[in-house]
Structure formats: structure tokens, C-alpha cells
UniProtKB/TrEMBL annotation:
This is RNA methyltransferase. Residues 41-114 form the RNA 2-O ribose methyltransferase substrate binding domain. SMART domains: SpoU_sub_bind. The lineage of its organism: Bacteria, Bacillati, Actinomycetota, Actinomycetes, Micrococcales. Belongs to the class IV-like SAM-binding methyltransferase superfamily. RNA methyltransferase TrmH family. InterPro entries: Alpha/beta_knot_MTases (IPR029028), MRM3-like_sub_bind (IPR053888), Ribosomal_eL30-like_sf (IPR029064), rRNA_Methyltransferase (IPR051259), SpoU_MeTrfase (IPR001537), SpoU_subst-bd (IPR013123), tRNA_m1G_MTases_N (IPR029026). One of its GO terms (molecular function) is methyltransferase activity. SUPFAM superfamilies: alpha/beta knot, L30e-like. The keyword 4Fe-4S does not apply. One of its GO terms (biological process) is methylation. The keyword Cell membrane does not apply. It comes from the Bacteria. Keywords: Methyltransferase, Transferase.
Length: 275
């Protein structure tokens, strides 16, 4: 691959859990280390597999235990075929790098973040997530957007770092499948998405339309679902900038759905409306 020196890619086994390399990998759990190094941590066989398959040019190193090499030989095979450095590690080293990796870890170079002006011009379905603070929610919502075939995810305002190990792990590698764009806030997102020809559909308990038969027609066209913060949702001014505000019907006694579940319900409603 371009920029990779020639020679064997399967490295010597790493066995010292206190080595500088091991400490450096573990430090990537923190945002400051990610910013300094320009890299981020990918944990677990599913997420590492997707990094190798969809972003091999950005993968710096893959670390794998003996047991994981037996359980997931395709990861090692594909990494070596792509010319990546694969480091066998002991169980102790793998645990020192990450307690949640199931013996498979990768360090990936972070690409520069792009703004909403990089939205693909032919986008027909977009998910906008505003001020999401929970990494599990963000990762799961990105995974749902990927699953329904959304063209992009827009992170509006002060969202959790999408390269956080918890976000990457919760997305199960979907962060490598579709554009994740940044916007200063809902106002910027709304203006640019509407200018691009997408209608804005907010999910909010105040919605005058109920998700279902009465919203089917609005979800057949080009649109973006907008989801607010887990605790306070969307403000009145933000809701006023939407083309539609839709509420999810709740038949039981639950007060509401969490963000990731609401995103799944709404985005799949769009998928079903399109047939």
C-alpha cells in the first residue's frame, strides 16, 4: 500500500504489558491522547474487522492474541493482505491495552473532520444528532443510520467524540461505513439541509403528527431526521425551524424512548415508507 515500507507485516509477539507501546495504545481511551497523536482506538473483532475492510489505509497497527487469531482468522488474513502491521500479543498485553477488546485491537489514524457542507449532493436520508452526550447512544444511533442506508450522520453542537472507543464499539464498526459530519448547531444544520433540498423532520413528544400512517407520505421524499439531546431534546426555536415535528406513539406506561431506540424507530419508518 502507498506509504507503507516493504517487508514482513507480521511482527514479533508483544509480551510486556508495561511497554511504552502498550501504554500508548491504552492512553487512546482519553480524548487528549487522541488529539495529540491523531489516532484513535478500535476495540473488538467486529469493529476492527470493519476498520480493516473499509478504512485499511488509515489502520496503523492491529494487535491480536493467539486465541483471537484462531477465532477470527479472517481479520489477520485481510490485514496482512492489505499490508498492515499485525502484532501478536499475549493475553496480558491485550488486557493492558483494553479490557473490552476480546483480544483484537487496532490503532487507526483519524481523518480530518468535515462540516455539513461536505454532505453528498445526492443525499436522500440523513440523521442529525444534536448535543448527544452518551457514547453508547451515539454509537448505536450511527449503527442504525448505517443499517437503514442513510447517506450521512450530522453531529450538531456539542456531541461526544465520535472517535471515543465507546462510540466506535457501540457502532460495531459503522463509523467506518458512512460520512459523519460536524455542524455548529441545529440552526446551521437546518439551513444547509433545507438549502440542499431535504425536509427536516424532528422527533419530539410535542409533535402534532404521530409516526405512522399520517406521516408515511412525508417520509417518501428527501428528508433528514433530527434528534435532540437525551435530557432536554430540542428547544422551541429549534423545533420552529423544522418542516415537521413528529411524535412516536407510546401505548404503554413508559414516559419516552431513549435516543438510540427513537432513532431506530424513526429511521426504519423512513426505510419502510420507501418500500
Amino acid at each position: 500500500m502507498t506509504g507503507r515500507p516493504a517487508g514482513p507485516r507480521l511482527r514479533d509477539t508483544l509480551s510486556n504489558p508495561r511497554a511504552d507501546r502498550v501504554r500508548g495504545v491504552r492512553a487512546l481511551a482519553g480524548r487528549s491522547a487522541r488529539r495529540r497523536s491523531g489516532t484513535f482506538l478500535v476495540e473488538g473483532p467486529q469493529a476492527v474487522r470493519e476498520a480493516v475492510r473499509f478504512a485499511a489505509e488509515d489502520v496503523r497497527d492491529v494487535y491480536v492474541t493467539d486465541d483471537a487469531r484462531v477465532s477470527h482468522p479472517e481479520i489477520v488474513d485481510e490485514a496482512l493482505e492489505a499490508g498492515l502491521y499485525v502484532h501478536p500479543v499475549t493475553d496480558e498485553v491485550a488486557h493492558a491495552m483494553s479490557e473490552d477488546a476480546q483480544g483484537v485491537i487496532a490503532v487507526v489514524t483519524a481523518r480530518p473532520e468535515h462540516g455539513i457542507d461536505s454532505l453528498p449532493s445526492d443525499s436522500t436520508l440523513v440523521a442529525v444528532l444534536s448535543a448527544v452526550r452518551d457514547p453508547g447512544n451515539l454509537g448505536a444511533a450511527i449503527r442504525v443510520a448505517d443499517a437503514v442506508g442513510a447517506d450521512a450522520v450530522v453531529l450538531a453542537g456539542d456531541c461526544v467524540d465520535p472517535r471515543s472507543p465507546k462510540v466506535v464499539r457501540a457502532s460495531v464498526g459503522s463509523v467506518f461505513h458512512l460520512p459523519i459530519l460536524r455542524a455548529a448547531g441545529i440552526a446551521e444544520s437546518a439551513a444547509q439541509l433545507q438549502e440542499a433540498g431535504l425536509e427536516l423532520v424532528a422527533a419530539d413528544v410535542s409533535g402534532t403528527a404521530e409516526l405512522g400512517a399520517e406521516t408515511h407520505a412525508m417520509l417518501t421524499g428527501r428528508h433528514a431526521w433530527v434528534f435532540g439531546n437525551e435530557a432536554w431534546g430540542l428547544t422551541e426555536s429549534e423545533l420552529a425551524s423544522m418542516d415537521h415535528v413528529v411524535r412516536i406513539p407510546i401505548a404503554g406506561h413508559a414516559e419516552s424512548l431513549n435516543l438510540a431506540t427513537a432513532a431506530a424507530v424513526c429511521l426504519y419508518a423512513s426505510r419502510f415508507a420507501r418500500g
